[in-house]
Write a structure and sequence with these properties.
Blueprint (H helix, E strand, L loop, with lengths): L2 H34 L3 H53 L2 E6 L5 E4 L1 H7 L3 H6 L11 H12 L4 E7 L8 E12 L2 E10 L1 H23 L3 E6 L4 E4 L1 H7 L3 H4 L4 H5 L5 H16 L5 E7 L5 E12 L5 E10 L1 H50 L5 H31 L8 E4 H18 L3 E6 L6 E4 L1 H17 L5 E8 L9 E9 L21 H7 L5 H11 L3 E7 L3 E12 L23 E5 L3 H13 L3 E5 L2 H10 L4 E5 L7 H9 L12 E5 L6 H7 L4 E4 L4 H16 L3
Parallel strand pairs: 12-14, 18-19, 18-20, 20-21, 21-22
Antiparallel strand pairs: 1-2, 1-5, 3-4, 4-5, 6-7, 6-10, 8-9, 9-10, 11-13, 13-17, 14-15, 15-17, 16-17
């Protein structure tokens, strides 16, 4: 009721009182006047006082009534607000609330209770509690009333499939006695914990499954709490470390299982890994762990964080892989690799030494043969000399092949990139093998297509070596028919800077069976051992060809038919050279070639035969020679005498040729001429040696056995340089 209504009601009470009082006073005074016959003025005065009193009393009644009614209104309003507030709370709590009366009826049920029971409030209130309380729980209901009568609460946890028509309900309950309208009532609260129970059961199943997986995988599986204590260890971990489960669980992980010398490092890495995982990053790490016997195992770990309902990390599960055997295998492999590298290095050093030791006497043999060839000989003697020279050259080729394949396998074989003429590459091949083919009665042809540029850039020495091996094999294994060398340029529009040259070596020889096609590219392998005896050779030619073609980014293919012959196809990518004849300066018409005067040559060579051959060859060329047996002797002679050029052997006792050259070039005392031409003569004929010698300060390089033509050309260049005006 509004305050205005209360004021109107108060006014009505006051007016009623005033009217009733006035009527009473008027009629009572008139009657008294009649009885007593009081004078009229006095009577009216008395009546006026009575009326005034009545009206004042009515006003006071109004004020008091209005205040009382407003107080009642305020109290009622507070009561309604309180009731509304508590009703809102009760109807919106997640717990189900039911009030049972002492008569066994439901007086109230909140919406959550209706939802839990699957019934409306009207349905619940119309039913006896036995209708919806599960049969197995009615004893609990009776016990709750017994405790309520003693003023005690009752609580617990249970589940029942009878509460809700569609599902089993898990719940917590609590009953509290309460008085209402002077009678005892029972307030029962129920909390539906079905979802949390299901979640807990799912978590238990998941954890059980997870534990089963960890227990049965062939990996290390452990769990640590936040204090670093071991809370779980699978059988694989226990088997590796030698601990029993009872001994291991509860132990401090770092103090028990981590070696003392790396304990702080592992703890720091572990903590940093945890920080990264908290940020959602995946991380792994490796460390050693200790077994019960004190042995160390190398393990690679991955971690999984376990969190509680508040998203706090409560446990860390670690899965590890035992790397111990792998590490041992890697160490063994590394040791084996190191041993192989040492052995390979030893082999290279052995071959280098062998090169010197074999080439040195071979140089003497070939030198003496060349000297003998320059004397007066009859035809029979010249034939003997030519045969001996051919045998020496064959021995030299075998030695070179062995050195080349060794350097390639050691990864120390380097290609050069320089301008060259295709004629310079092909001419020696044709000149050498056309004679051999003619001697066997074979036709030998060489065809170079017009589209092959005359000037190219690449490694001419290795290209010539490839052709020498392929053509040499073709001539060697062909008894009748022909050998053909073809060179052509393939279309190259896709990459104009790289010119694909196609080389084909065709023969009508013995051919290669299909099952042997891959084997012939292996070292020391031929088509058949009988052929090796019949045709000779050590089986290195094609192995070298395959490796050289691969190093030059080319391709090699063989097309062969036993008894009919073989076609070897090689494709190499070279560049056209900008070198042109016009770019070379042409001497003036009036200028005449400068004469090559005799030179004063210091021959530094420790081998007597080779020194004798060099001296005799130089004398035949018209030069003056002085001999030195090693680098120290050479320096002594250079300090006291003047020479035009030095022929320097490389491997010598006391002081080798490279060291002697460096001392000459780096001299600041004035004892030596630092600019004197120095030409290396060595049996170290392996790729890369020329660069090493030149970096030491040598001007030119001659490989033993030194041919007379090569020596004459080298000295000619020195003489021309000396004759040129400064």
């Amino acid at each position: 009721m509004a305050p205005r209504t209360y004021r109107i009601n108060a006014i009505k009470v006051a007016v009623f009182y005033a009217i009733a009082g006035a009527i009473w006073i008027i009629f009572s005074d008139l009657y008294a006047k009649h009885l007593s016959e009081v004078p009229s003025p006095v009577a009216w005065y008395q009546m006026s006082k009575g009326l005034l009193f009545v009206f004042l009393s009515a006003l006071l009644i109004y004020i008091l009534s209005a205040r009382q009614m407003l107080s009642l209104l305020e109290a009622r309003k507070l009561h309604e607000e309180s009731e509304s507030r508590y009703r809102t709370i009760v109807e919106n709590v997640t717990d189900a609330l039911i009030i049972f009366s002492g008569k066994g009826t439901v007086t109230y049920a909140n919406p959550m209770a209706c939802e839990m029971l699957g019934k409306s409030l009207d349905e619940i209130q119309s039913l006896d509690p036995r209708a919806f309380i599960p049969t197995g729980m009615y004893d609990l209901y009776s016990k709750a009333w017994e405790l309520a009568e003693r003023g005690e609460a009752f609580f617990g946890e249970d589940s029942s499939p009878e509460i809700h028509p569609k599902r089993t309900v898990h719940f917590e309950y609590r009953t509290t006695p309460m008085m209402y309208d002077g009678t005892l009532h029972l307030l029962a609260s129920f909390r539906d914990i079905t979802e949390s129970k299901q979640s807990a059961q799912a978590l238990i199943r998941s954890e059980s499954k997870f534990r089963n997986v960890l227990e049965n995988i062939p990996l290390i599986g452990i769990s640590l709490d936040m204090q670093g204590r071991l809370t779980f260890a699978n059988d694989h971990f226990l088997a590796l470390t030698g601990y029993s489960r009872k001994e291991a669980l509860g132990k401090d992980w770092f103090e028990t299982f981590i070696p003392k010398d790396i304990r702080n490092i592992v703890r720091s890495v572990y903590e940093k890994t945890m920080e990264r995982q908290e940020l959602g990053e995946l991380s792994t790490f490796e460390n050693e762990i200790l077994t019960r016997s004190g042995a160390r195992l190398k393990v690679a770990w991955s971690n999984v964080l376990t969190r509680d309902v508040h998203d706090r990390i409560v446990e860390v599960t670690c899965v590890g892989v035992d790397l111990t055997e792998r590490v041992r295998a890697e160490n063994a492999l590394r040791t084996a690799k190191t041993a192989a590298e040492i052995a390979n290095q030893a082999k290279s050093e052995f071959l280098a030494t062998m090169s010197h030791e074999v080439r040195t006497p071979l140089n003497g043999v070939m030198g003496m043969l060349q000297l003998m060839e320059s004397t007066s000989l009859d035809e029979e003697q010249r034939e003997y000399i030519a045969t001996a020279m051919d045998s020496s050259m064959n021995l030299l080729r075998i030695l070179s092949d062995i050195l080349d394949i060794s350097r390639i396998e050691a990864g120390k074989f380097e290609l050069v990139d320089e301008p060259f003429s295709m004629d310079e590459v092909i001419a020696p091949v044709v000149d050498t093998y056309s004679k051999e083919a003619a001697a066997k009665g074979l036709a030998f042809r060489c065809e170079v297509a017009p589209n092959v540029p005359p000037e190219l850039e690449g490694d001419p020495v290795r290209l010539r070596q490839i052709l020498f091996n392929l053509v040499g094999n073709a001539v060697k294994y062909t008894e009748t028919g022909e050998v053909l060398l073809q060179v052509s340029a393939l279309p190259h529009a896709a990459n104009p800077s790289r010119l694909p040259l196609h080389f084909v070596v065709h023969d009508t020889g013995i051919g290669i069976p299909d099952q042997k096609m891959n084997e012939i590219f292996e070292t020391f392998t031929q088509v058949d051992s009988s052929y090796s005896r019949r045709f000779g050779g050590v089986g290195l030619g094609l192995a070298i060809v395959k490796r050289l073609v691969g190093m030059m980014d080319g391709s090699l293919a063989m097309d062969s038919e036993p008894g009919r012959g073989t076609d070897a196809h090689v494709t190499l990518y070279l560049r056209s050279s900008a070198r042109a004849e016009a770019a070379q300066p042409t001497p003036a018409a009036s200028a005449e070639p400068l004469p090559c005067r005799p030179l004063r040559v210091l021959v530094v060579e420790d081998e007597t035969v080779n020194r004798f051959y060099a001296v005799r060859m130089l004398e035949k060329l018209g030069h003056e020679t002085i001999e030195a047996a090693d680098g120290e002797s050479a320096l002594e002679k250079l300090a006291w005498e003047k020479f035009d050029v030095v022929l320097m052997d490389i491997q010598m006792p006391r002081l080798d040729g490279v060291s002697a050259t460096r001392r000459i070039r780096e001299d600041t005392s004035g004892d030596f001429d630092p600019d004197i031409p120095i030409i290396a003569m060595t049996a170290y004929a392996m790729p890369g040696d020329e660069e090493e010698f030149k970096s030491a300060g040598m001007d030119d390089y001659l490989a033993k056995p030194v041919e007379a033509e090569a020596l004459a050309e080298a000295l000619d260049n020195v003489a021309k340089r000396i004759a040129e005006p400064a």
